[in-house]
Amino acid sequence: MERIDEINTVGQVLAVRTKQEWREEFFLHKAALVIPRGPNGTYLLAMRAATKKPFPGVWVCGVGGTCASDESFLETAQREMKEEIGVRAELTVVNTFLHDDEYMRALFRIFTTIDPLDPTELVIDETEIAYLQAFSLDELRELITERPETCAPTAVTAIRSFLLGLLE
Asked: How confident is the model at residue 19 (pLDDT cuts 50, 70, 90)?
């Protein structure tokens, strides 16, 4: 049975809970996201699979998921990379942010790949991702400012945090 840490807003563990309890009680937890580098200075976002809930058919970070109780943010990011796009890659932290609204309650750590990935060489888990698309930094800014409704709410916050982290 998968276990998830219930945390406070600074990431301290309050309790170890089951994934079923998380679905029922919607407590604050840790999650890792990756926006991989793509070709020619771009970054890869995922169009969420049409059958994936919540938020089917919208833009999300390239890969991501909830941290299991025994996993670090980095271990989760690496596991999700392998599960969702079939690749192992060296990662670097870009930023950490809290997202707490009616859709998601998580302390996120967001990563990118050290080296660019070729989206044509990735093995996509179609139950999670419909396809990946490369975006320039300007296109990422435009996406979250001019078309935020095409993104999951957490993706808007994540991309904003990602762009701020790249500037630091």
From this structure: confident
